[in-house]
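=== Structure Prediction Worksheet ===
Name of assembly: unnamed complex
Input type: mixed (protein and possibly other molecules)
Chain count: two
Listed entries:
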Amino acid sequence: DGGITQSPKYLFRKEGQNVTLSCEQNLNHDAMYWYRQDPGQGLRLIYYSQIVNDFQKGDIAEGYSVSREKKESFPLTVTSAQKNPTAFYLCASSIRDRGLEETQYFGPGTRLLVL
Amino acid sequence: QKEVEQNSGPLSVPEGAIASLNCTYSDRGSQSFFWYRQYSGKSPELIMFIYSNGDKEDGRFTAQLNKASQYVSLLIRDSQPSDSATYLCAVTVIYNQGGKLIFGQGTELSVKP
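=== Predicted Assembly ===
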């Protein structure tokens, strides 16, 4: 089955700890994205990558880091510098449809909680 | 001004009625418009996309786009309780390095049996 997987479903972080959220896709999509969603809020873009070994900061990149060593994988690390990490984290991928327009599909999400 | 705005709701409609969800956007250069449905605790699911002015129908769903008024809407005919969810409007905004999706905060829809 083709799709986007995220793990774990729930993640608990202790103070001062770095944690890494996994995102894998087997859709052969070029672009991948990380969003953060807070209760009652829309999605805010953290990082995105349009090709392997390249990525750009989104609107709220501070306290986060990413890598894109393989087309299928785009892990997100929430560092200790992110002081308010509790949120629902969503990974998405897309294939270009027409020029700059991109239809994004989402993974099931990871809920991060601070202990 | 927010780039993509939606009424947060909740919007409550009786079963079988038409639900109308609205979205306005600020970037006149936007070319692609998307509607996602998000059930509580779940990830967004793409319902429809629209690129051209006018209506686009898919089953019980109709997306309407008016670029002159910078307005996109989603109509759900014969609403069912299973349609109860938050609906996210997303618009492609063009930047120097390409386009990216900007999401509205979502409209919560409740369909009462």
